[in-house]
Amino acid sequence: MADKANKKPEPNLVELGSILFILAVLFSVVLPAWEQVSVLAQEQTNLQKCQQNLLDMHRGIDAYRQAHNGIFPPTLGALVAEKILPEMPKCPSSEKQTYAGKGYQYKPGDPGRYTLMCMGSAHGELDLGLNEPLYDSLYGLRPPMKAISSPSPSPSPSPSPGQSAEK
Length: 167
Known about the structure:
By secondary structure, the protein is of the alpha+beta class. The chain is 41% helix and 8% strand. The N and C termini lie far apart (83 Å).
């Protein structure tokens, strides 16, 4: 009888089942959030690669201009034809040549100014606008507009000159 008093109780099947049920519920709650975080992290990485592509094309345009006495390339394909870039970069989010065509805009009336942009809505998961990210030769790599357009706190109204601040 002394053996039964010192023996620790073992969990029964109901207790094990309830522990497994609780763990299953916790995993079902945590797993979707984990997937959402990993998708967002992948999109952030793709955005950074896209911005790097824009900077690489900017350097290629500068190299083309140095080789051609300040003349801008007519298209981005000229950078590949001149072997300044090994191939036309592709946006990692869309896997298409989203920079070719309208992704390069040179303004002849504004000497030295051009714009490179990611065409389309490939970065929609990050809530970016159409044709973002964008590189402007005058301003550089522009941060996404959603980061700029965050509302700032409004200042508290100040008393008019005839009123006192105290009541």
